[in-house]
Amino acid sequence: MGGLFSSGRKSKKESNEQAITEKDKAVLELKRMRDRLRKYREGLTNIIQRETQYARELIDNGQRKKAVLVLKKKKLQESLAEKAQGQLYNIETMLTQIETAALNQQIFQAMKVGQATLAQLQKEMSIEDVEELMQETAESVAMQQRLSDTLGASLTPEESTSVEEEVDRMLAEMKKKEEEQKQQSKAKLPAVADEIKQQPKPVVGEEDLAAQVQQLPDVPSTRPESVEVTSNSAPASPVAVAEEEEARAKEVVLN
Fold first, then answer.
1. Maximum alpha-carbon separation in the chain
2. Is the pTM of this model over 0.85?
3. What's the rounded Cα separation, in Å, for the pair 108 and 116?
4. Nearest-angstrom CA–CA distance, 31 and 240
5. How many CA atoms, within 13 angstroms, populate the side-chain half-sphere of residue 94?
6. What sign for the dihedral angle of Cα 155, 161, 165, 168?
7. How does pLDDT run across 154-201, given as a tens digit for each residue?
C-alpha cells in the first residue's frame, strides 16, 4: 500500500516537473536574484544613512579622525550600493527581454495557426471554383438580357410610344373625372341649404283664427249634477275641458 501511494506521489511530482520548462526555471532564478539584490541595496542604504549620522556626531564631539574613518567606510558602502543597483538593472532588463520574447513566441504561434487555417479555407475554395461560379453568373445574366430583348422586340418604337401615350391619356381622364365628381358633390350641399331656407313658414290669418275659435264647444251655463267619484278615476268637469281646449287653440294660433 505504501508503495502504491509513494509511486502515485512520484508520478505527480514528475508531471509537475515536466510542466516546468527551462525558461520557467531561468525566470524564477532571475526573480529570486532580483529580490536578494533589492534587499542587499536597501541594507546598504540604511548603513550609509546611519554612518553619515554617526560621522556628524563625531565631528560635533571633536573626534575628527574617527569621523574620517567612518566616512571612508561610508564611501565603500556607497560603491557597493552602486554596483548592486547596476546588477539589479541588468537582471530587470533581462526579465523584460524574456517576457517580450515569450510574448513574441505566442504571437508567432497564433499567426502560425491562423496561416494554417487560412490555407485550409483556400483549399476548400479554389480559384477554379470561383472562376466557374463567375462564368455561370455571367451566363445567367446574359440569358435574362436575351429574354428581355426578345419580349421587347414584339413592338416597334412607334408602337411603344403610342402605348405610353395612351396610358397617360387614360390617367388624365380618370383624374379629370374624379375632380368633376368632387365639384358636383360640393355644389349640391349649398343648394339644399338654400332650398330649406326659402321654404315659407305657415301664417295663420284672422279668419282662420275666428273659425278655430267657433269650432270650440260652448261653455255650459248650469252646474252639472254631482257624479260619484270612485277612488280609481276622477273625471274632469266640462268647464275645465272647455278652458283647456281654448288654451290649446290659442297656443296653436300663436305658434
1. 169
2. no
3. 12
4. 131
5. 15
6. positive
7. 666 776 777 778 878 888 888 888 888 888 877 766 655 566 566 555
Domain residue limits, the chain: 10-124
Residues with Cβ within 8 Å of 102's Cβ and at least 6 positions away in sequence, in order, are: 23
The three three-digit cell numbers of residue 107, written as one number: 504571437
C-alpha cell, 32: 529570486
Residue 74 contacts residue 48 (beta carbons within 8 Å): yes
Does residue 98 contact residue 23 with C-beta atoms inside 8 Å?
yes
At a CB cut-off of 8 Å and minimum separation 6, what does 98 contact? 23, 26, 27, 30
The C-alpha angle 122, 128, 132, rounded to 5 degrees, equals: 125
Residues in contact with 163: Cβ distance below 8 Å, sequence separation at least 6, in sequence order: 155
Task: Using alpha carbons, list the distances in angstroms from residue 88 to 30, 39, 72, 77, 95.
Answer: 10, 11, 25, 16, 11
Cell numbers at 85, concatenated: 543597483
The cell for 249 is 287653440
Q: For residues 184 and 179, what is the distance between their CA atoms, to the nearest angstrom?
A: 9
Whole-angstrom Cα distance, residue 83 to residue 37?
10
The answer to whether 142 and 150 are in contact (CB under 8 A) is no
Length of the chain (residues): 255
